[in-house]
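EI: anyone free to look at a 536-residue chain?
SC: sure, send it
EI:
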Amino acid sequence: MTRERLYLFDTTLRDGAQTTGVDFSVDDKRRIAAVLDELGVDYVEGGYPGANPTDTEFFSARPAFKTARFTAFGMTKRAGRSVSNDPGLQAVLQSAADSICLVAKAWDYHVRVALGISNDENLESIDQSVRAIAETQREAMIDCEHFFDGWKGNRDYALAVARTAYEAGARWVVLCDTNGGTLPHEVERIVADVANVVPGAHLGIHTHNDTENAVANSLMAVRAGCRQIQGTLNGLGERCGNANLTSIIPTLLLKSEFADRFETRVTPSRLSRLTHASRVLDEILNQAPDRHAPYVGESAFATKAGIHASAIVKDPETYEHVPPESVGNERRLLVSKQAGKSNILAALERIGIDLDKDDPRVGQLYEDVKSREAQGYSYEAADASFELLARRALGEVPRYFSVDSFRVMVERRHNAIGKLVTVSEATVKVFINGDAEPLWSVGEGNGPVNALDRALRKDLGRYQRFLDGVELVDYKVRILTGGTEAVTRVLVESLDTTTGDRWFTVGVSPNIIDASFEALLDSINYKLVKSRAEVA
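SC: here you go
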């Protein structure tokens, strides 16, 4: 049975760039665009040439795409101007784009208030702009801004906007839920109505996530007739984000309702790069990946309850809706006081330790985990600390160094220009295994833990070369019991900037500095173990 073709349009580099705190460089855009091309999306919208120096430079030459169409974004010509006398439209037309997507007002309220022109003038601008693109032998697309609100306010005019774009020669007429307030049942009904005016093979959908329905709205639009889906990696976008292609793409390929009817350029082998693509974007943005993201999150295929883990070991389909490896992710059976031996065995297998289920060390490790969690430790989010605990039980963690003592001072004082500042300084005395004399290190930081981290990693003798790229990137504190003698749990996230690897370690103590130091020690020892550092 022949399946219909769906087209994937990524706007991470344009609409996603409107996210608060996001500012892509040209090199960032090139790297992300290459990842999207490898993933198999049909259109990569790179930005708005002429609007800023970054986008203009990015569109000065076409990227070496294998299959994706390099797409420029712009606006229809201004009313009262000719195509040749509109600098914004000309900048887009003169760019190295394969396709051009122009935004046009589809809500008569916006035509009147935002543009200050008549409805007919707006239609004329759309018609002439699309024809101008067609004359350059490139694909034309119109993003019908505020289409769903416009349809509700003035159905006839919204449909007239879509019809005008299509009849002028637009390859795609894209219906935009710009405010993100339309609900799935409304999307299905409205798209079905538009499909009577514009064939579904020329209809696209562009949704925002302001009601947490962007993915659902996109899928409902496909059911109703749309054959192009616009969105962003990881749902990046202004306000609450855009439709998340990282969730939409695997749903289209792995759920029978869509997989049996439609096909995309994303093959199963390309789909297995999805998690990698998601993590590359997070790395470029210098943000921690969303651990609970569907399909690609670290916890997407994680199981904590022992009875669930036991079933998954027997048959993963008992608790997994798709195979994790299909999207480049992996199964994780978490180690916690709610877990059973199945979780322990699965966690050991994940880190490369193969023990028989009847090995007494498995039972002892299970009891150790339960005992330590009773003290406040938590290994669900601290895989690195669990691996050290397991390998220590097997005698596989060398003693690289020992900390004889440490001291942390926090001083609030006036600096040389009379400004009141708080200064933290830490001193650490370390014995490297095999050395007779200790190493003393001093570090300053913007807080006691930062100072302690800097001091500890400042000089570890022969092991220092393994730690040069390691940074503390996140630090979380949780008070487990009340009062001034509260027990504190600290979770530390570390990053190796040379490899991109991240790991989490945990420390527990009534003293927050001591708990932090324990987590820092685990972090360094874990890195040395993974680097196979040799002990003298």
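EI: The longest helix spans residues 512-530.
SC: 👍
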